[in-house]
Specification:
heterodimer; A: 173 residues; alpha/beta; Glutaredoxin; 7-stranded mixed β-sheet; 7 strands; B: 553 residues; alpha+beta; 4 domains; 13 helices; 27% strand
């Protein structure tokens, strides 16, 4: 019995270190729970645009991204969308993409709105509020500014002016 | 410092041995100077880890091997756990933003409470660290004591040192004729009391023992607690634990987050008590009698994440979910949680009426959420140009929608056909009568309202949404292990509580009888056993007179 004492001690202490370390580590680096924060990676999605093409978040790897959630029923969003169009035109040719995810509205109002305001950037259609829920949206509009490293830099939960959007875009480029 | 651990009987003991492992002679200086009854804990054997020159690993080991440390850990954990009960824990809320909850509801103490992280006490690093330390302490304390104890009890010497016997808490001395015959008689009596009796070669010393297994009770209990603790920690593994909420509208298979399951609410019903079933005080109030969701569970087999295709679903199980009767499937339980039975418009089947001729065209199916963009009604066509879920006039004077729920739906059509303008004429249609009046449909539409009308007519042509059911999806794969742990623990407790390990030692030095007895509890019973066996063997002795002092339990 005595000869095995040392190995048994080491095995047990290692076991404790492993199991305990995992359990304690999880509490320290708990990232799954709670809302998204700057530094997190945005949850993946695949959504259809207005032309019916599937667009996945992973298609834009390496690009700076502006992901904004909007709906025609949200007056600040309605005001903000033309500002995004201005920014879209301003940053043509840069490694930047603006993705506007509609908040699960029906087809017609979305198409009418996009046509009316001449929006050229991809308008994605969330279905049954799935992506919206995954992003833990609390207010509309909410805009995620994602850096080229694929990490969220900033989350704007307020309506923004043209200038405010531009400042934030400069920070992720 | 060098310490001689060799006993006079020739046995080499481990460092820290209190009573010689072989003959039982007291070894510690402080136990030699008095005649007090001996401390018999762990039979006086050394703890396994006690060493003369401990290294780092030994020091860590010794830290956790200390019962004193274990008691401190448990007390600190108790205090810490109690702190978590002052205000509600974050984990008890379904969702939402906690950033201001504690301050809003409990003021400055609430703010401090949250700032200290006590709003998630049981998930905090220090609480889990305490649990891990208690777990470690359980393993090491037990291992360090059970192995030497097992060894000591496995090979007990029959003829013990005189001072060992004399200094038992139950002790007796006398001069007896014919020692050999007395030992035989006493052995016989002890056997009848279900003792296992061992005599040494010359028949002048005896060891009788019963219920040794009860000594393993605490260790079995500890194994149970370790299983229990590991199971609790295992709940942190993502696939082992889930607690989420789903909204299941009528007739629609909705995905269950983080799984490939879908759930369909085929029908939700809520029954209320009739007035004659209710006591006087509650009459006239709506008291729910039964909530029921007729649910179907599906697995998604293909195109689960493809936005362009409907997921392919395979039915797994049907179950009527009632409160406390969840749908259970492979460790997942789906409970009834809440419902919303506010009716909303789903679809209408209106007709187009030519007011001048009274002719009716239609009906046509108009869905609130997925309307067609064009409807052919006899010679007329209706082109849907815009749709509003909750119609309102915006700040800019243009029509807008306030939400995406069909609370006040409105449809903006372009009507074309005989007798109408070439380019078509616009017609705003409110399916709900109240909205039609509130927003003055006819005035908005102008003169076309005198010629044409879109009407639903009877309620048969109105389709309302069925109630939505809210369900709680739970997975707790650790639960069986929690129960197993609790069961083992209880088994250990029962073994330790209801049986006692009793031993009797006897030796003759010429005709002088020395008898000692030890039990781990219930000394009254121990003395009774000895007195009764002695009486039947020929020596009458009062049980009480066997008491040799010491702590009486």
């Amino acid at each position: 019995m005595g000869a095995y004492r040392k190995p048994i001690q080491i095995v047990i202490l290692l076991g404790v270190l492993l199991i305990g370390g995992y359990a304690i580590g999880k509490t320290l680096f708990a990232d799954e729970a709670g809302p998204l924060r700057p530094g997190d990676e945005p949850p993946p999605f695949t959504l259809l645009d207005l032309a019916g093409n599937a667009r996945a978040l992973s298609d834009y790897e390496g690009k700076a991204l502006v992901i904004t959630f909007w709906g025609t029923f949200c007056p600040p969003c309605v005001k903000e969308m033309p500002e995004f169009q201005k920014q879209y035109e301003r940053w043509q040719g840069e490694d930047l993409e603006i993705l506007a995810i509609n908040l699960s509205e029906s087809d017609l109002p979305v198409r009418n709105f996009v046509q009316q305001h001449g929006l050229e950037f991809p308008i994605l259609r969330d279905v049954k509020r799935k992506v919206e829920r995954e992003y833990g949206l609390k207010v509309y509009p909410t805009t995620f500014f994602v850096g080229k490293d694929g990490k969220i830099k900033e989350i704007a939960e307020v309506p923004m002016t043209d200038k405010q959007i531009e400042e934030r875009i400069e920070r992720i480029l | 410092m060098f310490q001689n651990t060799k006993c006079e009987c020739g046995h080499q003991n481990h460092v820290g041995t209190v009573l010689c492992e072989s003959c039982g002679k007291p070894l510690m200086q402080e136990t030699l100077v008095t005649d007090e009854p001996l401390e018999m804990r762990y039979d006086g054997v050394a703890r396994r880890s006690q060493k003369a020159n401990p290294n780092l690993i030994d020091r860590i080991w010794n830290f956790f091997s200390s019962v004193k440390i274990a008691v401190y850990l448990i007390v600190i954990t108790f205090v810490g756990a109690s702190l978590g009960t002052i205000y509600p824990q974050e984990s008890t809320f379904i969702s939402g933003d906690f950033s201001t909850y504690y301050e809003d509801n409990y003021g400055t103490p609430g703010k401090i409470y949250q700032a200290l992280g006590l709003s998630h006490t049981y998930e905090s690093w220090w609480f889990i660290t305490l649990l891990v330390m208690i777990g470690t302490s359980l393993v090491i304390c037990s291992l360090d004591r059970v192995l030497p104890l097992y060894r000591a009890l496995k090979k007990q010497q029959i003829r013990k040192h005189l001072s060992f016997i004399k200094r038992q808490r139950v002790a007796y001395e006398a001069v007896v004729d014919q020692p050999g015959a007395f030992v035989d008689r006493l052995a016989e009596q002890l056997k009848r009391k279900r003792y296992r009796v061992h005599k040494d070669k010359d028949g002048l010393a005896l060891l009788a023992e019963k219920n040794r297994f009860s000594r393993w009770g605490p260790y079995i209990n500890h194994i149970g607690l370790i299983v229990f603790l590991l199971a609790v920690l295992a709940r942190g593994v993502p696939a082992w634990h889930m607690d989420s909420y789903i909204t299941a509208p009528h007739g629609e298979a909705v995905p269950i987050p983080d799984t490939n399951y879908y759930l369909k609410n085929e029908q939700f019903t809520v029954d209320y008590y009739a007035d004659d079933e209710l006591p006087e005080a509650l009459k006239g109030t709506m008291r729910a009698k039964k909530y029921e969701t007729q649910a179907v569970l599906y697995a998604c087999t293909a195109s689960c994440d493809d936005p362009a295709a409907e997921p392919e679903l395979t039915e797994l199980k049907r179950h009527d979910i009632l409160v406390n009767h969840p749908l259970e499937y492979e460790g997942m339980s789906i409970y009834q949680f809440d419902f919303d039975d506010t009716p909303k418009l789903k679809a209408v089947r209106p007709v187009l009426v030519d007011k001048q001729t009274g002719e009716r065209y239609g009906p046509f199916e108009l869905s609130m959420t997925e309307p067609e963009t064009s409807y052919a009604l006899g010679p007329y066509t209706l082109e849907l140009r815009q749709q509003f879920m909750e119609f309102a006039i915006g700040d800019d004077g243009n029509p807008t929608t306030l939400s995406r729920e069909p609370n006040a739906p409105a449809f903006f059509f372009l009507l074309k056909g005989p007798g109408l303008d070439e380019a078509g004429e616009t017609y705003l249609y409110f399916p709900r009568e109240v909205d039609k009046l509130r927003f003055s449909q006819d005035r908005i539409n102008g003169d076309i309202a005198d010629r044409f009308e879109i009407i639903v007519g009877t309620m048969e042509n109105v389709e309302l949404t069925e109630p939505t059911s809210f369900l709680n999806v739970r997975v707790d794969k650790a639960m069986p292990y929690v129960w197993v742990g609790a069961g083992i623990s209880m088994l250990g407790l029962v073994l330790g509580f209801y049986w006692q390990h009793r031993r009797v030692w006897l030796r003759f030095d010429a005709d002088r009888l020395s008898l000692g007895a030890h039990t781990n509890k219930n000394w009254y019973g121990m003395r009774g056993d000895v007195a009764s066996a002695m009486q039947h063997a020929g020596i009458t002795v009062e049980p009480k007179s066997l008491d040799n002092g010491g702590k009486n339990l």
